[in-house]
């Protein structure tokens, strides 16, 4: 029993670790998509952010400089997306695809040119990374059965970005549902003409939304490069941007369910790593590949409307034309 | 404030604007090369030399182009129906399954010219079926096709890894791939065509599926512009409302369009699997499904544009390898950057230069009218 409990805590612990990049990217997508700008470029922004974080942290020796650089680069890409889809009324999907490719290629090219390690950044020293923080009282709580173990193993011992990511869930909820900016943001995603009639600039509002997207996806990248790993490795996002997108749909574009969706997908990931093809009770042996594909399959089933219906923001994907 | 997009002469719309977009994309790619500390002009020279310098290189360029024609056509057909099929990568991957089903079972039985048409059907069918589920979900349940096709790319990747590792791999072999096909499932090479022009080719995988790709391009032209179905597809793409009013079955068109698109993407598998590697390998698609998006956008979804665009990307793939060899600072991933920039400028930012060009042509037109009035002709 205690052994099972210990395993459970380990799996849940890695669930938290693995779901943080999803959560940050998912919340990033939420701002943009709630404002009516589809963003399948989360993957690219995250990847570029991870590279910038790895490079800057290696050069400056400061994790915070890495995070800052990641945010700058990701916001830059978000503005390219904004320029294409808001100002020039281009196809938002096409623009997102383009950003993914530009990020995937240029991170490797620049990494190779600057560091000559086959597209990786050199490994970042421990003091230039976001390290685990011991919450107060961890040592004292360790001996208390169950609750103490949960506190010391599960809640404590994560990097500051993990706590910030979880804090950004209620923060996003507050911004969306309790501020004027949030109300307008949601309105511009549903009916931009109404927002325009009220005398509020639709482009400026949407630009602010994509900037928020850039900040959060940059943070997701920084987490990958400076907290989960010690530096940037090529293609390190490995489809997480798309899983975050899936989680966003799964959560029906709401912040708190988004957190649970990301935790669910993180849990599936942690479980598939833990099991490695070992047989499960009752079900028997499940192929690793099936576990890896499960988030995508679940999202398709959800999209098909078999587990509730996911209705996207109504003006999503449609460029706003002021007159005519 | 917003200027409506007025009509421009056809050659501007289909020639000048895409050309400007393309030049800008390559100029930005040149900046990246400059940033890396190499000369963009020298890189371009190496690339062209590497792609067309010798018969060998031309054969490789056309080999890559073959795959991109298929995937470009796949994306283009879906575009005409107003659908964005990002799932070409997965459909091509699963298309490989259709190819090996034929190849592994019949390669010792029939000669290649019997197996080839069967494999075409197998590949097309497998790709079409992989596109069917997202198509059905879009048509009947309104699930966004972009998201479902992305998800299906990942599901396809997992499925194929599972099949290659646990099912198709012969016993006692380490590498996750099928056994090599016998001669009956190897496509004849077309290298002799290039050798007719006096070039010597040692070995290159340029094969007969290139002709199939050209045939498919012609077939897509006939389908989209010369048949009732094509007319319905274009109507649906232009205005779903008008299509509904005209009594065109929306669900039917979505499903048929996506299945044609999936079949074209699936046929891409013939080229590497039966034409080059003679076995099914892990990740044999290597991004060709995504290159199709760039090819379709660059070729403006018309076969006449898609074939040269595919050859251009074939050139980038082949020439890019040469650049990586000559300039160690630039790896093959430069192609991915160029691909992204082409998608950005020819796709998402296609209207960026339009207002300026419009103003220019409007002022030209106004000038003409003024001269005409002065000469008393109006």
Keywords:
heterodimer, A: 324 residues, ABC transporter involved in vitamin B12 uptake, BtuC, two-stranded antiparallel sheet, 69% helix, B: 378 residues, mainly alpha, 16 helices
> What gap, in angstroms, lies between the N and C termini of chain A?
69 Å
Mean model confidence by pLDDT of chain B: 88
| Main pleated sheet of chain B | none
The shape of chain A is globular
The assigned CATH architecture of chain A is Orthogonal Bundle
User: How many separate helices of chain B?
Assistant: 16
Quickly name the level 1 CATH class of chain B: Mainly Alpha
Percentage of residues in strands of chain B: under 5%
Oligomer: heterodimer
Topology-level CATH name of chain A: ABC transporter involved in vitamin B12 uptake, BtuC
Can you list the strand order of the major beta sheet of chain A?
A: 1-2
Indicate the radius of gyration of chain A in whole angstroms: 20 Å
Q: Tell me the count of domains of chain A.
A: 1
Total number of beta strands of chain A: 4
Largest interface: A-B, 52 and 52 residues
Order of helices and strands of chain A: HHHHEHHEHHHHHHEEH
Q: Can you tell me the residue ranges of chain A where pLDDT is under 50 for at least 5 consecutive residues?
A: none
Which second-level CATH architecture of chain B applies?
Answer: Orthogonal Bundle
Topology:
The complex is a heterodimer of chains A (324) and B (378).
Chain A: H1 2-34, H2 42-60, H3 63-87, H4 92-115, E1 132-133, H5 138-141, H6 147-155, E2 158-159, H7 160-178, H8 180-190, H9 192-197, H10 202-228, H11 240-250, H12 255-275, E3 279-280, E4 284-285, H13 288-303
Helix pairs in contact in A: 1-6, 1-7, 1-10, 1-11, 1-12, 2-3, 2-4, 2-10, 2-11, 3-4, 3-10, 7-8, 7-12, 8-10, 11-12, 11-13, 12-13
Chain B: H1 10-36, H2 40-52, H3 55-80, H4 88-106, H5 112-141, H6 145-168, H7 191-196, H8 209-226, H9 228-238, H10 240-245, H11 250-267, H12 270-277, H13 288-298, H14 303-326, H15 334-348, H16 354-374
């Amino acid at each position: 029993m205690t052994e099972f409990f210990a395993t459970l805590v380990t799996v849940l612990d890695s669930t938290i670790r693995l779901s943080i990049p999803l959560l940050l990217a998912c919340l990033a997508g939420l701002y943009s998509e709630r404002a009516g700008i589809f963003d399948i470029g989360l993957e690219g922004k995250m990847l570029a952010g991870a590279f910038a974080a790895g490079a800057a942290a290696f050069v400056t020796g400061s994790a915070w400089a890495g995070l800052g650089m990641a945010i700058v680069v990701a916001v830059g890409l978000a503005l390219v997306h904004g320029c294409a889809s808001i100002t020039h009324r281009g196809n938002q999907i096409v623009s997102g695809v383009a950003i993914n490719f530009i990020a995937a290629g240029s991170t490797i090219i620049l990494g190779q040119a600057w560091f000559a390690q086959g597209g990786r950044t050199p490994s970042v020293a421990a003091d230039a990374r976001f390290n685990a923080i011991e919450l107060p009282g961890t040592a004292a709580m360790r001996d208390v059965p169950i609750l103490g173990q949960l506190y010391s193993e599960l809640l404590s011992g994560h990097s500051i970005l993990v706590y910030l990511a979880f804090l950004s869930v209620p923060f996003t909820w507050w911004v969306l549902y309790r501020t004027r900016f949030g109300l307008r943001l949601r309105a511009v995603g549903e009916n931009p003409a109404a927002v325009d009639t009220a005398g509020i600039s639709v482009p400026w509002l949407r630009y602010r939304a994509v900037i928020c997207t850039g900040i959060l996806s940059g943070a997701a990248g920084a987490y990958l490069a400076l907290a989960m790993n010690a530096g940037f490795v090529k293609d390190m996002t490995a489809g997480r941007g798309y899983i975050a997108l899936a989680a966003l749909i799964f959560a029906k574009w709401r912040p708190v369910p988004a957190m649970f969706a990301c935790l669910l997908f993180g849990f599936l990931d942690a479980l598939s790593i833990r099991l490695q093809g070992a047989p499960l009770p009752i079900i028997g042996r499940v192929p690793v590949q099936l576990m890896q594909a499960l988030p995508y399959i679940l999202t398709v089933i959800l999209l098909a409307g078999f587990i509730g219906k996911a209705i996207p923001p109504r003006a999503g994907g449609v460029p706003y034309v002021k007159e005519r | 404030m917003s200027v409506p997009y007025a009509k421009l002469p056809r050659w501007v719309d289909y020639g000048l604007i895409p050309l400007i977009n393309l030049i800008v994309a390559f100029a930005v790619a040149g900046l990246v090369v400059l940033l890396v500390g190499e000369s963009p002009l020298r890189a371009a020279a190496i690339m062209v030399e590497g792609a067309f310098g010798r018969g060998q290189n031309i054969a490789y360029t056309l080999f890559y182009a073959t795959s991109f024609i298929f995937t470009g056509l796949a994306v283009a057909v879906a575009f005409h129906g107003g659908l964005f099929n990002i799932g070409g990568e997965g459909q091509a991957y699963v298309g490989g399954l259709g190819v090996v089903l034929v190849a592994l079972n019949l390669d010792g039985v029939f000669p290649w010219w019997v197996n080839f048409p069967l494999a075409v059907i197998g590949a097309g069918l497998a790709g079409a079926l992989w596109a069917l589920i997202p198509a059905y979900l879009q048509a009947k349940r309104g699930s966004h096709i972009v998201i479902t096709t992305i998800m299906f790319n990942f599901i396809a990747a997992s499925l194929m890894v599972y099949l290659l590792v646990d099912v198709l791999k012969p016993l006692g072999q380490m590498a996750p791939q099928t056994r090599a096909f016998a001669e009956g499932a190897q496509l004849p090479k077309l290298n002799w065509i290039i050798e007719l022009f006096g070039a010597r080719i040692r070995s290159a995988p340029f094969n007969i599926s290139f002709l199939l790709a050209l045939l498919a391009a012609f077939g897509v032209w006939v389908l989209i512009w010369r048949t009732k179905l094509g007319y319905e597809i274009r109507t649906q793409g232009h205005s779903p409302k008008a299509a509904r009013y005209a009594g065109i079955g929306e669900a039917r068109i979505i499903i048929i369009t996506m299945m044609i698109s999936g079949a074209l993407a699936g046929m891409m598998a013939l080229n590497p699997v039966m034409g080059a590697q003679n076995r099914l390998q892990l990740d044999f698609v290597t991004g060709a499904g995504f290159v199709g998006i760039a090819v379709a956008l660059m070729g403006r979804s018309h076969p006449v544009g898609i074939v040269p665009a595919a050859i251009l990307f074939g050139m980038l793939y082949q020439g890019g390898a040469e650049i990586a060899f000559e300039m160690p600072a630039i790896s093959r991933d430069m192609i991915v950057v160029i691909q992204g920039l082409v998608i950005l400028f020819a796709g998402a930012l296609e209207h960026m230069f339009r207002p300026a060009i419009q103003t220019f042509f409007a002022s030209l037109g106004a000038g003409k009218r003024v001269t005409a009035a002065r000469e008393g002709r109006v």
